[in-house]
Amino acid sequence: MRGLSWSRPRPLLLLLLLSPWPVWAQVSATASPSGSPGAPDCPEVCTCVPGGLASCSALSLPAVPAGLSLRLRALLLDHNRVRALPPGAFAGAGALQRLDLSENGLHSVHVRAFWGLGALQLLDLSANQLEALAPGTFAPLRELRNLSLAGNRLARLEPAALGALPLLRSLSLQDNELAALAPGLLGRLPALDALHLRGNPWGCGCALRPLCAWLRRHPLPASEAETVLCVWPGRLTLSPLTAFSDAAFSHCAQPLALRDLAVVYTLGPASFLVSLASCLALGSGLTACRARRRRRLRTAALRPPRPPDPNPDPDPHGCASPADPGSPAAAAQA
């Protein structure tokens, strides 16, 4: 059959034809694009890679994408347009360990936005427009190690907003509008050893005492210690926070210890109730006395006057008084 000529098969095609089916499936699953049937656990608009990483960066997304799954370990949502986080914004991603929400123009975080993220270890909220955080916002994040709030508009950070984060090691607060940290905030972070503070309008005063005490126990790197400054009220002079010793706050009122607070909260209401009861008893007694006096006066006014006695007895008891020695009666008796 010389009229038929067989072309020589290509080496790559021959290799693929002779390959077993599992190799085909593996190649197809690895090379499948995001959102295709080959990647059912990846959000449709994102790009996913093996290991549970979903990259949704710089896609102009207005909200957290749907389709999050338990297989996700890292979710990159930076450089989007997520302005607010509603309750349960990350439902379904309970195994998430890393979440990047930086540079979104984020200005609102619901108190239940992070519910269900009990495995989260890194949260980046930097370069947004957050001005306040509701109490309990980070309470579900018991495994959190790193939290960045840098580059926002926070003027105050309450202890209740962070909650008790026993494993938090790094907290970034630089480039906000903080003048002081609320008392008790750092005391609820026992594992914290890295605190970034530069770029805030810290005010030199008694409110800095807890922060300066923490900095003495956890010294800042030399390069950062020189840039963390506070300004004196009414002056234009700056001082580094690390320059304040505990003696510098000797004129400040000492905060009450827990035992003293317990005594105050116990005796305070009791003393108030005793004082209130005493005032009520005294007032009731005075009111009763005045009422009795009015009744007596009213009764005396209604009683008819007693007529005078026409024959008054000079000595009703029959005992005459002895005569005056100088009187005529006494002289006659003599």
Automatic annotation (TrEMBL):
It is a single-pass membrane protein; Single-pass type I membrane protein. This is Leucine rich repeat containing 26. Residues 298-334 are annotated as: Disordered. It is found in: Cell membrane; Membrane. The gene is LRRC26. The keyword Cytoplasm does not apply. Residues 304-313 have a biased composition (Pro residues). GO terms for cellular component: voltage-gated potassium channel complex. Residues 1-25 form the signal peptide. One of its GO terms (molecular function) is transmembrane transporter binding.
